[in-house]
Amino acid sequence: YPRQHTRETQLSKFNLTEVEAMLASYTKVLFIREPFQRLISTFMQGMGSSPSFSSFVQDVLDSGQQARVAWKPLTSLCQPCFVQYDYVVMFGFLRQELGHLLRQTGLPVDSLLPELSDTQVQWTYSWLSEQMFHELSLQQKKQLSHFYRWDLAAFPFFSSFLSD
């Protein structure tokens, strides 16, 4: 796209005609992760200042519309109803999906794919999710489900604790 080298990086900085032309000229890939796993990862990386997962979740819930990007709902960040993504790659299936994506775009697969152990990652996050979900009050669980309701509706997170 002709204006690709401008300092503006957010679509909201462009007019509708420019946005449509820009989006039509790119292969659009969205990487997604189950919301509760995103919260766990953010907490484990120390991005919150809370001493416990439960208090971290409460901080997230209290932040509301001012939520940090690390835990903001994906639908508010990536606009999947507005942007027609060519590929949606889900965390936990990265090796399989990235291989397919690279083949479809004509890039060499073997030299670009890092070693990913999807099965081990899925098992670890399943175990962590179960442990940390039990730390939350019923009220926090309901509030989280509501906070991420659009992500849960937009993407196929089959085994999310938040969708129950």
TrEMBL record:
<dbReference type="GO" id="GO:0050655">
    <property type="term" value="P:dermatan sulfate proteoglycan metabolic process"/>
</dbReference>
<dbReference type="GO" id="GO:0008146">
    <property type="term" value="F:sulfotransferase activity"/>
</dbReference>
<keyword id="KW-0119">Carbohydrate metabolism</keyword>
<keyword id="KW-0333">Golgi apparatus</keyword>
<dbReference type="InterPro" id="IPR005331">
    <property type="entry name" value="Sulfotransferase"/>
</dbReference>
<dbReference type="InterPro" id="IPR018011">
    <property type="entry name" value="Carb_sulfotrans_8-10"/>
</dbReference>
<protein>
    <recommendedName>
        <fullName>Carbohydrate sulfotransferase</fullName>
        <ecNumber>2.8.2.-</ecNumber>
    </recommendedName>
</protein>
<comment type="similarity">
    <text>Belongs to the sulfotransferase 2 family.</text>
</comment>
<keyword id="KW-0735">Signal-anchor</keyword>
<dbReference type="GO" id="GO:0016051">
    <property type="term" value="P:carbohydrate biosynthetic process"/>
</dbReference>
<keyword id="KW-0325">Glycoprotein</keyword>
<keyword id="KW-0812">Transmembrane</keyword>
<dbReference type="GO" id="GO:0000139">
    <property type="term" value="C:Golgi membrane"/>
</dbReference>
<keyword id="KW-0472">Membrane</keyword>
<dbReference type="Pfam" id="PF03567">
    <property type="entry name" value="Sulfotransfer_2"/>
</dbReference>
<keyword id="KW-0808">Transferase</keyword>
<keyword id="KW-1133">Transmembrane helix</keyword>
